[in-house]
Write a structure and sequence with these properties.
Elements: H1 3-6, E1 7-13, E2 18-23, E3 28-32, E4 35-38, H2 41-47, E5 52-53, H3 55-59, E6 64-67, E7 70-71, E8 74-75, H4 80-96, E9 108-115, H5 120-131, E10 137-142, H6 143-151, E11 155-162, E12 167-173, E13 182-185, H7 189-203, H8 211-221, E14 232-237, E15 240-245, H9 247-255, H10 258-270, H11 277-281, E16 284-287, H12 296-304, E17 312-314, H13 321-332, E18 339-340
Parallel strand pairs: 1-9, 9-10, 11-16, 16-17
Antiparallel strand pairs: 1-2, 2-3, 4-5, 4-6, 7-8, 10-18, 11-12, 12-13, 14-15
Helix pairs in contact: 6-13, 7-8, 7-9
Bound molecules: adenosine-5'-triphosphate (ATP) and magnesium ion.
Length: about 350
């Protein structure tokens, strides 16, 4: 085998709600970022497994000690179970890439991993620890930078990655972004879920609603601005399925992330060199699952009118754009960019 064939390059997007991997042998996989261990010996007998990962873990949650180990872009600190869960997620992604995490079949595994922009220094150490023994070489980069790299939007662009735990911003000036060119907010999908839960509970205190139901309602009906139709959902009230109108609550929860996102965007745009500001304003790219909220891109674009106008677009494939970007970077990176992991 030539050295190239012996090396497998991968891009990993370790996300709060979904994690994905893209590999140099053309594989792409996504898993829900959930890990669960059977609660007791009955659950163990039913499930016949020691640990469940992804959608399977979510589907069997009543029998599991279920963990979603990332929160606001960081591995929940001090919790051994959450640290073990992150390792399980990474192991599962590596296995899905066709590599045995223990032996690696004689291959060298090189991974570019995206983490939230501002937390880079803190989470870098956490991610390092979780990857020990799973990969041979690693490069940890900011999530929105990986997105920019994958889209080749490297010059005069602003990436806004609106995920579950964080919204990450990165201005691209044709080189590695500096700390000043990147920001992270915790106003993203999970924030909306929490606010929607509060608003719906205030209006319909009698209804029994789980976070999983709420999230599904949001993914089906999210919007900002004028509603196209009313949002009606069904939830049990005293055990009876009952129709609830949550149009106002949906709008209020989704619109809640707009002011901080707009403020941060304006701040970053004002810091761009004056002669390039118009170019960047016309090249604002939204990524991440929460960028799919109806009316969000036009609402952000409308705010740009105040400063001379601009253009906001949404990426086509928000699920794999981060891991594809990581892979592109892995394939281009010279030897000096890689950190060697302890065996
Ligand atoms: N159609 C939709 N409307 C609104 N929100 C959506 C929609 N589809 C997905 N989402 C939300 O997008 C978020 C997931 O997006 P994404 O996969 O980019 O996040 P992540 O990478 O897991 O999180 P992070 O980048 O913050 O770690 C979730 O909050 C999910 O509920
Ligand atoms: Mg993400």
């Amino acid at each position: 085998m030539s050295p190239k064939q012996k090396t497998l390059h991968v891009g990993i997007d370790l996300g709060t709600s979904r994690s994905s991997i893209s590999t140099s042998n053309d594989k792409r996989h996504m898993i829900q970022s959930y890990v669960g261990w059977p609660l007791d010996l009955v659950a163990r007998k039913v499930l016949k497994r020691d640990v469940l990962v992804g959608q399977e873990a979510l589907d069997n949650r009543s029998m599991l000690d279920l963990h979603r180990p990332l929160e606001e872009g960081l591995i929940k600190e001090g919790s051994e179970k959450d640290e073990a869960a992150v390792r399980e997620l990474l192991r599962t992604l590596v296995k899905l890439a066709g590599v045995d995490p223990e032996s690696r079949g004689g291959k060298e595994l090189r991974a570019v991993v995206g983490v939230p922009a501002e937390a880079l220094r803190v989470s870098k150490a956490q991610v390092h620890k979780a990857l020990a023994g799973l990969v041979d070489r690693v490069m940890i980069v900011s999530e929105p930078f990986a997105v920019a790299y994958g889209l080749e939007a490297l010059l005069h662009s602003l990436i806004i990655d609106i995920g579950a735990g964080t919204t990450d911003f990165c201005v691209m000036n044709g080189r590695f972004p500096t700390e000043d060119e990147q920001r992270t907010l915790t106003n993203a999908g999970d924030w909306i879920d929490e606010h929607l839960a509060q608003l719906v509970a205030n209006r319909h205190p009698e209804a029994k609603i789980s976070v999983h139901m709420l999230r599904q309602w949001k993914e089906d009906h999210s919007f900002v601005g004028k509603p196209k139709s009313s949002v009606k959902v069904t939830a049990p009230v005293d055990g009876v399925p009952t129709k609830l109108d949550i149009t106002d609550e949906m709008r209020q929860a989704c619109e809640g992330i707009l002011p901080p996102i707009i403020e941060t965007m304006m701040d970053l745009l004002a810091k761009v060199e004056p002669e390039f500001q118009e170019k960047v304003r016309n090249n604002i790219i939204l990524a991440g699952g929460s960028a799919l909220i109806k009316g969000l891109a036009p609402a952000i674009q409308q705010q740009l009118e105040k400063i001379g106008g601009g253009r906001v677009t949404v990426v086509k494939d928000p699920v794999f754009v981060g891991s594809d970007g990581g892979l592109a970077l892995a394939l281009d990176a010279p030897e000096s960019e890689w950190e060697k992991m302890p065996a």
